[in-house]
Amino acid sequence: MRLIGMLDSPYVRRVAVSLRAYGLPFIHEPVSVFRDFDAFSQINPVVKAPTFVTDEGVALLDSTLILDYLERLVPAERRLTPERPEHFSRAQRIIGLALAANEKTVQLVYESLRPPEKRHDAWIARVDGQLRAAYHLLEKEVAEAKESFLFGARPLQPDITTAVAWRFSRFALADRLDPADYPALGNFSLRAEALPEFIAADFD
Hints:
Blueprint: E1 2-4, H1 10-22, E2 27-29, H2 37-43, E3 51-53, E4 59-61, H3 63-71, H4 85-112, H5 121-143, H6 157-172, H7 183-193, H8 196-199
Parallel strand pairs: 1-2
Antiparallel strand pairs: 1-3, 3-4
Keywords: Transferase
Pfam families: GST_C_2, GST_N_3
Domain GST N-terminal: 1-78
């Protein structure tokens, strides 16, 4: 199995961390959608990261759909989504918040690349508010967790996606998010990033 994309993408990284948490062997190919567009298009003409190629040669795209596929490859005790419906719905809510934070971070990064005269301040303020709302809700979830992670001692997909999102936002928007406003998330991130599966998927 092959994972194509750069680990500074939170979508690529959540798949890489999850693959290691599942204990599934894979090859990571750090191909950039920017610098290596032509090479990436040979693997996936849509040029979307992550792209995941199964052992059968099927190219999958979109991190959530890739993870849905991977859940079916491992025994129940290795899966990263809770079984009980009430836990599953909460997990999906948390994942949705973290993915929204990723999306808003990306929007703010791309907005910052525009020439100053092309930037739309009202739009930036709106996206910034959405980003902060997502992280305030995640901060509450993490602060109320009774164990090291959201559903127990072992990190599941909501933990992985939340930790990856927070690291990405802090990396990409260091001057916009004050860690003092999110102390529980900061501590949660330190615990997650110290795990071998996160260390193996680290980036500079």
